Amino acid sequence: MNALGTIAQDTLALYVHWPFCVSKCPYCDFNSHVRETVDQERWRDALLADLGYEARQQPVGQLGSIFFGGGTPSLMPPSTVAAIIEAAEAHWGFARGIEITLEANPSSVEASRFADLAKAGVNRVSLGLQSLGDEALRFLGRAHGVAEGLAALATAQSVFERVSFDLIYALPDQSEQAWEHELCKALSFGTGHLSLYQLTVEPGTRFAALAAKGELPETDPDRSAGLYELTQEMTAAAGLPSYEISNHARPGEESRHNLAYWRYQPYLGVGPGAHGRRRGVATQRHKKPENWLAALSRTGHGIVEEASIKAGDRGVEALLMGLRLNEGVDLRRIERLSERPADALVNMSAVAKLQNQGLIEQTNQRLRVTAAGMLLLDAILAEIVA
User: Fold this and answer.
1) CA 324, 329, 331 angle in degrees (round to 5)?
2) What is the C-alpha separation between 151 and 189, in angstroms, rounded?
3) What is the spatial distance between Cα 342 and Cα 328, in angstroms, rounded to a whole number?
4) What backbone torsions phi and psi does residue 96 show, to the nearest 5 degrees?
5) Backbone CA torsion sign across 191, 193, 199, 201
6) How far apart are alpha carbons 343 and 346 in whole angstroms?
7) pLDDT tens series, the chain, 386 aa
8) Residue 75 burial (CB < 10 Å; 0-12/13-18/19+)?
9) What is the CA radius of gyration of the chain?
10) Quick one: residue 5, left, alpha or beta (phi over 0 = left, psi -120 to 50 = alpha)?
11) For 171, left (φ over 0), alpha (ψ -120 to 50), or beta?
């Protein structure tokens, strides 16, 4: 096993998007996807048909990971999950140690289904705890409380082989001491993976509206940097060092599915709103469930857009994704993807300057952002990607 999972270069990743939410979500635009009832048999058949189309377009390669995400995928019938897993194995075959992840909200209703989902073939769950404080959960607009969330975590750990959960920090007025206490508690649960995100204000969210009205304090960069550095120190000391700017894991327990994205490996997307990258082609499915179903009836797939990715764009995408990882990128691979010399995509004079500042390291043909540079990742990417 290498330092970051066991992904072979020729494996595929599969993303299955389940669009329906059971409650309004403050982070996404799935509010229109709340449904009282869903025709489960119709949806299972439609997802299997969309999956079959992708198999015909990309018949070569084994699956290294499957990820069920979207609205509330943990409320998919386990029989549907099992049918998709069975069909995926029939289409492509499974690489040894395949990772099959399902996103879940930490509600008691969803936790009650974990055992059946594990029997269906899911071996990893990603749990959206988001905070270990009730007041913070209310601020974040979450429907669950801390007690319910921790009960769901305990159930997940008793059922699944691998468990990850996420937390959001750098909340308004959150002190370094408060975050240290919360992160210490999070590490005590013993999961092999943590996703730790600083609060960001995305356009179209409730937080963006609050910020526009002056009701959300502006982020202090120095405070955010201090919290980030504390996070790196504590997770590393606990044996879960960062392998990506916001993700931490025990060696070998990194998210293989997300690594496929960050390493710019091919991935297939099925279901409403799903994106994919296969054989130099970018795919995008219809976002609205009804439009996706109608497209499937007309054409046999849910794709709204399918476009070839120019070689130069492939190189840029691989750079932008790969430099998020502690391992960085191999410039020789960037050259192969982009079909041009690395210095046509990378501003080497900027790299030299940033290297002198200790923000970037270049060893032979490997380029990586240092721990200090990760604090300034967006600015660094803007400067070095030509």
Assistant:
1) 145
2) 12
3) 14
4) -60, 135
5) negative
6) 5
7) 344 555 555 699 999 999 876 554 444 444 445 555 678 999 999 999 999 999 999 999 999 999 999 888 888 999 999 999 999 999 999 999 999 999 999 988 889 999 999 999 999 999 999 999 999 999 998 889 999 999 999 999 999 999 999 999 999 989 999 999 999 999 999 999 999 999 987 777 777 777 777 767 777 888 999 999 999 999 999 999 999 999 999 999 999 999 999 999 999 999 999 999 998 999 999 999 999 999 999 999 999 999 999 999 999 999 999 999 999 999 999 999 999 999 999 999 999 999 999 999 999 999 999 999 999 999 999 999 97
8) middle
9) 21
10) left
11) beta
Is pTM beyond 0.90 here? Answer: yes
Provide the Cα torsion 359, 363, 365, 371; round to 10°: -30
Structure tokens at 110: 């969803």
CA atoms within 13 A on the CB side of 184: 6
Identity of residue 224: S
